[in-house]
Design goal:
The chain has 464 residues and is α/β, with parallel strands linked by helices. The protein has two domains: 9-68 and 349-463, Aspartate Aminotransferase, domain 1 (Alpha-Beta Complex), CATH 3.90.1150.10; 75-346, 3-Layer(aba) Sandwich (Aspartate Aminotransferase, domain 2), CATH 3.40.640.10. The chain contains 13 helices and 18 strands. It has a seven-stranded mixed sheet, with helices on both faces. A five-stranded mixed sheet has the order 1-2-3-16-15. Strand 17 (426-427) and strand 18 form a beta hairpin. The longest helix has 22 residues, at 349-370. The radius of gyration is 22 Å and the shape is globular. The model has no long low-confidence stretch (mean pLDDT 96).
Amino acid sequence: MSDIRIATAEDQILLDKEAKYCSYGDTVHYIEPPRIFSRCEGSYVWDTEDQAYLDLQMWYSAVNFGYANPRLNNALKQQIDTLPQIASQYLHKGKIELSEMIAVDAKNKFGLDGRVHFNVGGSQSIEDSLKVVRNASNGKSLMFAFEGGYHGRTLGASSITSSFRYRRRYGHFGERANFIPFPYHFRGPKGMTKEEYGSHCVQQFARLFETEYNGVWDPKTNQCEYAAFYVEPIQGTGGYVIPPMNFYRELKQVLDQHGILMVSDEIQMGFYRTGKLWSIEHFDVQPDVIVFGKALTNGLNPLGGIWAREELINPKVFPPGSTHSTFASNPLGTAVGLEMFKMTSEVDYGAMVMAKGKYFLEGLQDLQKRFPIIGDVDGLGLALRCEICGPDGFTPDKATLDYMVEEGMKGDMILDGQKLGLILDVGGYYKNVITLAPSLEISYPEIDLGLKLLEQLLVRATKR
């Protein structure tokens, strides 16, 4: 095992400049010294010393289709040579056709007419969705959201994100959400099946509407004080927690009964991460609003947006100028988004991702049998989790996972004569969960490689 890695002279010059000139408010240094990367391809990134790292988090699931994907890169290059930029108040073919693809897909899946509205990223699209649902509810500013939920760090988005640390220094934009327990079965009450626990959580939420004294419902007027419930169908930063399959269906019944909109945040789990275009599709419900971003452009362009039901977003109720961004629906981003949809229509990504996810999960389950510090593994498609615990297999162990992440970034693991690093992401309520979001294009040999590298890190962790 190597000692602490020392930055090269060239890297140190850059790090010294970063320390002097760059805001630390827009980044997080998980390891010291931070790595500086120089190139990427497929499932790998290389640092300035040309050390390869297998990436199992793919830029927080923004690069679903692999680094430097030739087809998507070429779509961007071709657009640069034709219409690289145009003000967002003017129309171009890409915006219209991409909106059509998303809206027609939603009509086919949910039976609902709707429209698409673009912005420059996930948090900004959450802000737009807040405008849509507040407008539709006559200005109601209160929202439900989940414990463990993450929706962004702009002022509005942080008000519906459960972590207080993102709001602590800035106050509230409107009102903070009412955070409802998520059915996190591994850490839920013992003696219930996963489905029973899902129903239990819905029943506890439904109690809020039993009497006016529970604070959210006026039975005399049949009105709720809350406009919408923001959900991540699979929790992202919260640790890739996968709820029971009955949960959202039962929750949506309660929401519909009381006139509360369901907003599905697909920013991290959309675009086939879970084996479907939208992760909410697994749960047999009709969302009222979908928010998307990240992998729409495979990380090549900051483009996100929302789809909303026609009655929520048609021009009579949400007129021109309701929101605006200079770079929204820019032609570079929409060109890549269109090519992504064409690419995924030619191959059954759903079947491919589910098969790879099953194979990867079986490998994690094998590691769980051999390493007692793995308390829980789970997965849906290629959204996978591995919870690192103490020797009892339950007590959260953030320190051990932090150690594993640092060891993976040393780039000194030897496998079949090749020196490699491993990039992992940390999530979960206790920051003790490896959240695995590999490229959807990852090969089976690369999955095997990732599992072997994980095994090496687990061995190091248990022997340290």
